[in-house]
Amino acid sequence: MRKICALTIAFSLACPAWASDKNREEKRLEACGQVFKEILNIPDGIPKELLNKAECVIVMPSVLKFAFGVGGDFGRGAITCRTGEHFTGPWSAPALFALEGGNIGFQLGGQATDFVLLVVNPRGANSILGSKVKLGADAAAAAGPKGRTAAADTDIVMRAEVLSYSRSRGLFAGISLEGSTLRSDGNANRKLYGRDLSAREIVRQGRVGVPSAGREFIALLNKTSPKNESDPKSLQE
Questions:
Q1: What is the helix (H) or strand (E) element at residue 232, kind and residue range?
Q2: pLDDT of residue 176
Q3: To the nearest whole number, what is the mean pLDDT of the chain?
Q4: Angle at CA 128, nearest 5°, toward 227 and 203?
Q5: Phi and psi angles of residue 132, each rounded to the nearest 5 degrees, phi first
Q6: Is 14 left (phi over 0), alpha (psi -120 to 50) or beta?
Q7: Are residues 68 and 75 in contact, defined by beta-carbon separation less than 8 angstroms?
Q8: How many CB atoms lie within 10 A of CB 11?
Q9: Burial, 233: exposed, middle or buried (Cβ in 10 Å; 0-12, 13-18, 19+)?
Q10: Cα separation of 168 and 120, whole Å?
Q11: pTM for the structure as a whole
């Protein structure tokens, strides 16, 4: 009887912590949807032509300078990719991701900054989903052009695998994230989905559905950019 009581007490003490952790991951996904919605509404924001040619989108809400390298809850967000063998289907369930790198802090100036990254070819998508990658070394990265008239066929866009944007203090701009790293946030994905899953299993293999906290984010992408307009040949490389 004492053992049962002890187990009951232990379980009741553990449950609030687990629920709190899960709630934190859900809030992260909700923040991704809200940030992406706001950035899409910026008049001189991400060119629609580039979004329509992106295979994946990564959103990192409220990244803070002091958070890098200390294992905090900042520099955390989510990635989603178009489904299908050649990235031609609807947007996938999101996998939680982390952005880290000491060099970014100097650019942020201590301000909370939202990041949106467009992964613009299958090679970059497979690299990012496969392991921890360093932007500029493992995956070619560049500050994304902005504005409705920005060309999608400029040299910088053609050479890049990842185009990055930032929003801080109401200002929106392309920003270089070279030297920073992207990796799957395994602990957060386990808390969100209730089991161990790699980013590739979530995003490319369709092992889970879109959680309720991520539905606004994914629905917005499916509405705004329902079709991949990349050259079909480039998607089969």
A1: none
A2: 85
A3: 82
A4: 50
A5: -65, 130
A6: alpha
A7: yes
A8: 10
A9: exposed
A10: 24
A11: 0.84
